[in-house]
Amino acid sequence: MTPSVIDAATADAVTEDAPADGSTPVDAAVGADVVELADVVAAPAVSTPRRPPVAPPPAPSNTPGDAVHARVWTQLSRRIADCVEGVDSHTSVTVLVRFDGPTGMVRRIRSRGIFAEPPIGPCIEQAATGIRVAPFEAPTWDTTFSFPIAPPRWRPPQ
Asked: What is the SS3 assignment for 121?
């Protein structure tokens, strides 16, 4: 930094224009807009408007969760694979299952398309009937399972 040089004429002008109360020319120029730091610290805090409270997240469902769904899918997939063995299809079987809350037993089973027709439909219903989950608070739990159809294990020679 280079020191600033003030000539005698400038110093005399600044000194002559200074107010008698000891304030500086900057204070006089700004006037009432100058606020002392002590006044700001001692002033009561200004309250800002508060945001409305955020609603709490919805209560967790009283139905079985993802872990139970995965366990039931594993149990059903083995049984349903037996029902659709030999079906030459590049699709999947979709099964809608309704569980009863107080008992955890299957109340209703629905499959779609060709898989609802005999002999596959009754086989799927029989496979799902034996599945149980732990009792839960909700009256029912409707869930959907989708099972890919494996290609046939054996094909007749051509």
From this structure: helix
